[in-house]
Design a protein that fits this description.
The protein is mainly α. The protein is built from 21 helices and 2 strands. Pfam families: Acatn (PF13000).
């Protein structure tokens, strides 16, 4: 019993000593004085007039500050949407309209060669450090690139507009020249995208950075929509004669050369506006050499999580790439009119903007990649519906209302899932990207994401012709695959007969690989990556490089 009392006493003395030590430390740092002052102040009678007046002034000041921040944020978002819209216009031509305009004259293999013109947008990582590090301090870090590049795009569009008609008269002979010219145009658009991505990080506050991906989605989709859907519709003679003309003509309301000339001047005028009226936030940027900028990219890629994420990007669109690249082209080949296809996409566009808004809301949760996972399955389902649509296409080429509604439905599903994935993945990029590196981190992730959707296209077009088995009705030895073989068959007054259509084999194989990759690697990897803390995405060499 005495031993227990002695032990209890020792514990009391030890706790008392701990308390005294804590009190002495608090006195040294002034904590108790602050607490005592608060207790004294609590017993004082407050001056109600002074306090109420002060509270009113503080409320008005905070309210005015919030209104100013909201106004600045909204104007910045609108400005970013405008810049991204300008990017979307040339991209909509290269990746949207031109393949449809070239389709009657070229085989899928030749269309695959033209698809190489879109590759610079997926390879911009290789020159993004130059855009991020080389700039004129007087103009600003981003304006130093946006102004000359945007002006160059305008001049390039004007030059192409005066030559495009001549190239289209001999498409097969001019294919290489057309591909090179639009390759340069996409290269300029990709360079502008690097600068605008970095500008978005400095224009928007930290809590509003999630809207950078929304601005990008709305701007790019709107520009793409104008150059793809709207242009194709008004370029079609059937659409123009049906809805806008009393006397039929064999050409559309808008020509390709006229459309490109119009946007060439828009680019030049907008460049002058950005140069004189849009200010860039003046910040003192750390000096970094191009060599160190590439070193940063190398160190980012060295992170195991980043390498896993990059590999997910590279394989994530294999399952849906075949359908998205060839479905509409195949429908046109089957006999669907361009104006009907344009109307289907036109109906889909306003829903796409609404989808983008709700996708941004959905992606604002802590698990930003959860919508991306669900949308992945949705894109594969939409791809399979696309196969059924092509298979059930009427042999006489006359589509009824129900079939047209199914085309619209498939376009809406595919577009909805695409928008969800785009905004979700860009919101995640914005979250994990280190602002100290500027646009380099974002450009790395966006480049790999774009490359994942671009690199399969060439192989998709090649695979369709590879798996296709056909022959000429006038010459069985003629396989009717290349442009020359098809032209030779027509010269014999024959037509190509397909025994096996490689479209179905390529698309089914693509979807099967997509499901296999999803359950074996993509889903478990993405779920793991989104649970990682932000420090897992930082590199340790930033201080040594910048400071």
């Amino acid at each position: 019993m005495n031993q227990q009392k002695s032990l209890f006493r020792r514990v009391q003395l030890w706790m008392y000593g701990r308390k005294q030590n804590a009190l002495s430390i608090c006195k040294k740092i002034g904590y108790l004085d602050d607490k005592r002052g608060k207790r004294v102040a609590r017993h004082k009678k407050p001056n109600k007039k002074i306090n109420s007046k002060k509270r009113l002034m503080d409320f008005e000041e905070n309210h005015n500050h919030q209104e100013k921040e909201q106004t600045n944020c909204m104007s910045s978002i609108i400005f970013l949407i405008f810049l991204y819209l300008l990017q979307g216009v040339p991209l909509g031509l290269v990746m949207g309209s031109l393949p449809y305009l070239l389709q009657p004259y070229l085989s899928f293999t030749s269309l695959g060669f033209f698809s190489l013109a879109s590759y610079p947008y997926s390879l911009k990582l290789f020159w993004s450090p130059i855009v991020d590090t080389v700039y004129n301090e007087k103009w600003g870090r981003r304006k130093s690139w946006v102004i000359p590049v945007q002006g160059s795009i305008g001049l390039c569009l004007l030059w192409i507009s005066y030559n495009i008609q001549q190239w289209f008269q001999e498409v097969a002979e001019s294919l290489k020249q057309i591909t090179v010219v639009f390759f340069i145009l996409v290269f300029l658009c990709a360079t502008q995208d690097i600068a605008v991505d970095g500008w978005a990080l400095s224009l928007l506050s930290e809590e509003n950075l999630i809207y950078a991906s929304t601005a990008q989605s709305i701007g790019l989709n709107t520009g793409y929509f104008l150059s793809f859907t709207v242009f194709l519709a008004f370029n079609s003679s059937e659409f123009s004669n049906k809805y806008f003309r009393s006397v039929k003509k064999d050409f559309g309301l808008i020509s390709l050369s006229g459309y490109m000339r119009f946007w060439g001047w828009v680019f030049i005028i907008s460049t002058m506006f950005v140069s004189f009226f849009q200010d860039e936030p003046r910040k003192k940027y750390s000096s970094v050499s191009i060599k160190n900028a590439y070193l940063i990219i190398f160190n980012i890629i060295k992170l195991r999580n980043v390498r896993t994420f990059m590999f997910v990007h590279l394989i994530a669109k294999i399952g849906s790439s075949a359908s998205e690249a060839t479905l509409n082209l195949k429908l046109l080949e089957k006999g669907l009119k361009k104006e009907n296809l344009s109307i289907a996409i036109l109906i889909n566009f306003p829903f796409e903007l609404i989808f983008g808004y709700y996708a941004a809301k959905w992606s604002s949760t802590s698990r930003k990649l959860l919508p991306w996972i669900y949308a992945y399955i949705g894109r594969l389902i939409a791809a399979f519906i696309g196969i059924l649509i092509v298979y059930k296409f009427p042999h006489d080429g006359k589509i009824n209302t129900e079939y047209f509604y199914i085309i619209i439905f498939q376009n809406m599903i595919s577009s909805f899932m695409n928008t969800i994935q785009f905004i979700s993945i860009n919101a995640f990029h914005t979250r994990i990207a280190d602002p100290i590196i500027g646009g380099t981190y974002m450009t790395l992730l966006n480049t790999v994401s774009n490359l994942g959707g671009t690199w399969p296209r060439y192989f998709v077009f090649e695979s369709i012709d590879f798996f296709t088995k056909s022959y000429c009705s006038k010459n069985i030895a003629n396989k009717c695959i290349t442009d020359e073989q098809v032209s030779f068959c027509k010269e014999l007054n024959g037509h190509c007969i397909k025994k096996v259509d490689g479209y179905y084999i390529t698309n089914l194989l693509s979807i099967f690989i997509g499901f296999l990759l999803f359950f074996l690697f993509i889903k478990p990897s993405v779920e793991k990556l989104q649970r990682l803390p932000l420090r897992a995405w930082k590199i340790s060499v930033i201080d040594s490089v910048f400071f």
